[in-house]
């Protein structure tokens, strides 16, 4: 089987996802509080990526994974930032935010007549990703506002939360625009679609590099409650 340049690049750019998953396994015992949730996010990404690659190599659609992954990942982000920010309001509201996200993602699929229709649908769920991105950007903004107002450490770049939040801000700020045109790119041409996803993979590359740095910087003991 011959692969295009774009397909080879996509395979290379996904490497940090695997690396972040491996580091999460290595650092799992050190993780506490929000960093434990960060490890769960890496495990979810690792498993999803593996299954998605399996389907891709078998030339089967993997688009049905989008709503499942977005719902689980978005829920974990809300949980993680409720622990990171130590916000009473967010602690009380997180279950409602998670339920709201789940409803927003899943509501469009209620009209499907069977589970097979859901598995075989061929439309990228860009709107759900945009909704998740809006929530995450709001949470990341709250983190940076809190961090820069409190100034607990003069070397914020040494904090795992800084790398996670910075990576998420770059990723979702960039990909919200990409997902608006995702289905257009898919219909336009195969070559353009592959180039489109190479751009996405490059931004995703940066995100998982940031995850890896954050996980590697975990101290031996974190006095956090989960």
Total beta strand runs: 0
Low-confidence region ranges? 222-226
Please name the CATH topology: Rhopdopsin 7-helix transmembrane proteins
Number of helices: 10
Mean pLDDT: 82
- Global structural class: mainly alpha
Question: What is the percent of helical residues?
Answer: over 70%
Would you state the CATH class?
Mainly Alpha
The arrangement of helices and strands along the chain is: HHHHHHHHHH
Portion in beta strands = under 5%
Radius of gyration: 18 Å
Shape estimate = globular
Largest sheet: none
For the record, the CATH architecture stands as Up-down Bundle
> How many distinct folded domains?
1
End-to-end distance, in Å? 48 Å
Top keywords for this entry?
226 residues, mainly alpha, Rhopdopsin 7-helix transmembrane proteins, 10 helices
Please characterize this protein's 3D structure.
With 226 residues, the chain is mainly alpha-helical. It has a single domain, classed as Rhopdopsin 7-helix transmembrane proteins. Helix content is 76%, strand content 0%. It has ten helices and no strands. The C terminus is likely disordered.
Give the gist of this structure.
With 226 residues, the chain is an all-alpha fold. 76% of the residues lie in helices and 0% in strands. It has one domain (5-107, 115-216): Rhopdopsin 7-helix transmembrane proteins.
């Amino acid at each position: 089987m011959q692969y295009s340049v774009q397909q080879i690049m996509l395979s290379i750019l996904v490497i940090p996802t695997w690396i972040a998953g491996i580091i999460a396994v290595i650092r799992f015992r050190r993780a506490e509080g929000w960093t434990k949730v960060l490890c769960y996010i890496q495990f979810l990404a690792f498993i999803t990526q593996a299954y998605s690659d399996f389907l891709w190599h078998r030339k089967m659609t993997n688009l049905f994974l989008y709503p499942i992954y977005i719902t689980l990942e978005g829920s974990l982000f809300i949980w993680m930032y409720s622990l990171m920010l130590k916000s009473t309001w967010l602690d009380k509201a997180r279950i409602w935010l998670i339920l709201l996200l789940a409803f927003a993602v899943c509501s469009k699929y209620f009209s499907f007549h069977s589970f097979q229709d859901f598995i075989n649908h061929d439309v990228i769920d860009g709107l759900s990703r945009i909704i998740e991105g809006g929530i995450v950007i709001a949470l990341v903004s709250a983190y940076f506002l809190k961090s820069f107002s409190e100034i607990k450490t003069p070397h914020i770049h040494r904090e795992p939360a800084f790398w996670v939040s910075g990576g998420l801000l770059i990723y979702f700020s960039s990909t919200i625009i990409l997902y608006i045109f995702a289905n257009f790119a898919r219909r336009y041409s195969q070559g353009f679609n592959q180039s489109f996803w190479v751009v996405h993979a490059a931004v995703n590359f940066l995100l998982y590099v940031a995850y890896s740095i954050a996980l590697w910087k975990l101290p031996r003991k974190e006095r956090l409650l989960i």
